[in-house]
Amino acid sequence: MLRSSTSVAVVSHTQRLCSHSLPTNYTSFFSPRNPLLSNSAFLKWKTNIASSNNNRFRMAATKALAQPLQNADELIDSVETFIFDCDGVIWKGDSLIEGVPETLDMLRAKGKRLVFVTNNSTKSRKQYGKKFETLGLNVNEEEIFASSFAVPAYLKSIDFPKDKKVYVIGEDGILKELELAGYKYVGGPEDGGKKIELKPGFLMEHDEDVGAVVVGFDRYFNYYKIQYGTLCIRENPGCLFIATNRDAVTHLTDAQEWAGGGSMVGALVGSTQREPLVVGKPSTFMMDYLANKFGISKSQICMVGDRLDTDILFGQNGGCKTLLVLSGVTTTAMLQSPNNAIQPDFYTNKISDFLSLKAAAV
Ligand SMILES: [Mg+2]
Q: What stretch or stretches form a coiled coil here (predicted)?
């Protein structure tokens, strides 16, 4: 009896999480008739949807409970690439987590490819590169994939017309990446100080050349941006709605959890009654992109992260091995709660356990 009710809860919880990456009304703007999409872009989009639906069904299947990592060498030898989430895995705020440099050095010495993926869109790859450098880590810009970078990568993948503009609700990282990729944009931080002064008959103008609205984490979110983005999505034919992530909370300080990118996306979902395409975790877009770029098989990847509903789900949606570290937001109690449907393959305290578990195994 108990088992049966638990399994129903597991499926519905999982479906709710997976549905975040699926635009439920995608046919309205991702249709062959959308003037912004070429035929090949439409076909790519259909493939994305089919793959997401397969992931949804696969996730509903029963997953064995996560095992504590005991033999690090076995896991290391079984994959060729490690994808690391950053906050809670590599660093916490501005502090490096203990043992990280030595662990990354050991993995590189063993010939493993290292990739760093973050849902935080406030910085560009270059800006993240500086953060790694400041923390004393030797990480190449090419190894860093932030959701800010995923935005132009996605636009390129669907052949988004370069003569169209992107309206940005978000911070500097998205603007920098769009600029690097040669896309025109409006909005961003400069709309942070704009106010709407209502008077009878007032009408807000908007740019009819905006073909995509991108929403990421934005500390300067306001009603002007909501209304502008809403007008573009509702009134510009075929306008896309893209989210960098739908994270409920983020860690601006270590004193409490703060409203995350999902809160900004939620405002636009409310006003447009549309679901966005999510390019960050747990959507499979970045995983597909990485696998193609480096020519790696997803079964040869281990995704390492501190969040179940983004990192671990991202790895599982991509068909990778998964390792949860308890150095960030997830506790053992959360992992083992009967309400938690997302079970990684393994869990351990922090990534430097690779070194001690390795030493213990010798
Ligand atoms: Mg994290």
A: none
